[in-house]
Amino acid sequence: MNIKAIDIRICRFYTALFLRAILLLSPIMLLFYEENGLSIPELFFFQGIFYLTSIIFEFPVGFLSDMFSRKKLLIFSFTIFLGIVLLWIFFKGFYIILFGEIMFGISKVIMDNTMSCYLYDYLSANNKQNMMPRYYGYLNFFLAAGTCVAAILGTWIYSKFGFKNLLFIQSLLILISIFLIFTLPNIKFKRDTIKNKFYKFFNISKEIYNNKSIKYYILFSGLLTSISILFVTSFQPLMQNSMFPITLFGIIAFTNHGTRMLSGVIAGKLLKNINIKALIIPLFLLYIIGFCIVFFIMQMKNIPLITALLFIICLIICLQLTFTILHISRIHKFISIEKRGNLMSINNFISRAFAFVILISSKLFIKDLGLQEYFSIIFALYLLFGSYIIIKLYKVKDLV
Average pLDDT, stretch 247-253? Predict the structure, then answer.
């Protein structure tokens, strides 16, 4: 097949994912929750439910993605998201939002597990599988670009037209993305059995547990990732507490996603020149600084200074993502090619499990103690658990 035909179809695929990544509610989610009678504790709690859903469905969806058409699963994922948006247009309330977050978690897991598989299958069917790193890099760029667009566009649409019109526009974007997926070819691939999938997963889990060079790096990466999720989730409550204008909600969200896009570039520059061990303690200390910044923001109302401090946290998160990319790249040499998919599932599972525990605990701590006390408890646990992992890492001779 002509390479131009391949590129045109992949461009339609990228465009569909780009439109799906434009989550217009993301920069103003707290305001949407409040319009539905919810509060800050529910924001953290529902994000915890989202990650719990991701944990529960991570492996079942992984099995399904090897048994059913990738194209049909993508359409199913996008259709679930469309259903959530329509539900939120016509209904309000605690349980409506809760059900939507659960279904969104399922939709997100299906998309995450399917999109890269579809891309590889499509390239492989056209004898272009050696170009997967390049095309996968473009895929992640378009996803990140979609979140950046959502950060600005979402706040603007809300400030001009309100939530209901914003959700109608969101549904239109999803319909276009579903149409684009329908136009893609249905690629045949070699299906694996559930028995083989379980067998492979059990073996890779055992291999990781017995290899300290992998195990403690996965734990450290998971811990930092979960704290990054906590920081990002707290941005909107912190800005609301400091009486930020709505437009700044979008600018901060754009900054967060923009700095995330830089992490891949930074990792590419550092990959051959830095030992991952050298990043462990600096990152651990940077996250201590991040906690201190959050505590400081809670006590002040100076919008320009808070904006600058939130930008610093975004840079810290960018460095964490750089570490995660380096960490995944390095541990690949310990794992055979056919086990790398399961390795990524386990790595994602650990990160989501940490995030779930941290966010779900907010339901208890924030209501009974307050936001500052909640962060103090998480900070203490971070110091304790993080120090333990670092001690273990430095006792390992064959560091990654």
Answer: 85
